[in-house]
Amino acid sequence: MKGDANPAEQRIPTSAIAVITPSTTMTRTIDSILQARQLSLPVVQAAQTEAIRIAGQLIAEGAEVLISRGKTAHMLREHFRVPVVEVRHTFFDCINAYEKAKRLSSKIIFLATSEGYARILEKSRPFVPDASICFIDPLSSVQNTESILDGLQDQGIEVAIGGLSLEEPVKSRGMHYVMSDTDSDAASEAIDEALHLLQVQEQRKQQRQELQHRYEMIQSILDCVSEGIFSVDAIGVVTRMNNVAKTYLSTVSCGDAITELPMHNYVTQALRHGKPVRGALIDIGRLSLTLSIAPIVLEGQTIGAVATLQKQTDIKAIEHKMRRALAGQHTADNSFDDIIGGSAALQRAKSLAATYAGVDSTLMIEGETGTGKELFAQSIHNASQRRAGPFVAINCAAFAPGVLESELFGYVKGAFTGASSEGRAGVFELAHTGTLFLDEISETSADIQLKLLRTLQERKVIRMGDDKVTPVDIRIITASNKSLPALVAQGLFREDFYYRICVLRLRLPPLRERREDVPALVRHLLKGNASELLEHTPTLLARLCDHHWPGNVRQLGNIVERLSVMSQCSALIPGWLDDALDDLSPTTPAVNGEPAMKPASERDILFAALVRAGGNRQSAAEHLGISTTTLWRRMKKFLDEDPGCFDAARYG
Question: CA-to-CA distance for 510 and 546, rounded, in angstroms?
Fold first, then answer.
């Protein structure tokens, strides 16, 4: 019914979204969806070069978002600045077109004119066993296209599946032609995305208007604050100054170039790179000032900057500068994306770690040697609100108790024999506003544990040999490869300190509990040599997966490095693989080969995807090239008949 249409969709101008379809099947699908949703959008059937000409006309008539597919969508993005939403290819496109083609002949080929279509076709190979796949670019050259099609004809191909651009040349050779299918869910999602983009663009227009309004009010704001404030335009000309700034910069007036400013290098840098400057220390005569600069960015372009000048005492200015310099030496280089593996055990640990990143509570990471405790600690830091602060790590087992105390808390001049003449800040001070990672916490002495307990409770530090108390704002993460509860029971670890550091606990699975991650880890560690080495030794992964790995990923890394080196002389040394793996003893027999797959129903396809993803619907949807909503809608058809039909998928 007409009254059922979405009110937001009814307000969309008819020319705001235009659809350019490269196939008759997509045209029919789009028309059907638009009719059902009571949307009136221009739909034009054209492919590639012709589509560019038509798109130009539609944009001139007011189109702000285009919808297309495959190679045509890619070309539209290259030629126009308006957003182009692509109707994604899915498994079901391939299967449906394949079923139509089988009614004509068993000698079938898919003609992929885009990389996206080619990728989904490759994933669909097990379900279209009688069909071949040919990547062809009609725009490369007419002769090349004709040559490829002639070759397919010579091979006895009788049915081709593809888009609009290849229909005529294929039919001219007497072959049947089936248009690539279009999944209605994917098309509907593309329309939803286009509608959302229009809303976002409208919001951006409003934001630009508000920003322009704020910029016009700058002069009024300048006169209401006690700080020195001045602004410059995009080419570095001073446009505004308040009275305080005029006092500090007595030789500069509005209309002067920034080269006349004492701090012109900072201003130039902010305008050129569009990045703010915070807390730069400058001297103007006898004045010691702190300079901060905020670029004004409009539609991605830096159109000017606003700078503030504040008086600072020498002590505060020096302390601020030191904190910034020290923080820059301690960074975390890794994030959750750097943690390799898709096993259920690892995903659980990553999910819990991501949750812990959202809070500041003290965290204990438990795991065997080589399981990646510091990798997780760095990832948690980079996902937290403290990511802009320092990440300071120290291995407590690497220092004698007396030395460890000075490393943790720092010391002043003359605190002990051999102390630096200038004193030194400890890791607690260095980690201020960031994260402190204490590795091998189990190796600390009882005295150190007592001092750490007091520091964690009060968040205050006293350097060795000093009586000055320094507050610190840090998040504490500790790690151990030993069982702390067992050490507490044996009297080897303070119970009160254990409860203080174990507010949150994260256990990292050893490699033997996530053997399915070994292939991905090996390929990551081998990097560029992975494919060649693994193809040369097909039993390698099986042997590596079977090992117990007492040293976990660190041990695996050593073995992989050994394999990489020894493989370079494999042609000269018979049995090199056995030599490289001579200290690995398999615990389970290797499995060779897999049962051949056969064309499957939609239920079989969904089940196979869920098995591959370990029951994770989001991963299964990504593999199928559809959204999780579409996946659930398709699963529900079968769940209504058999509620337990997909239960086994989660166990592979």
Answer: 14
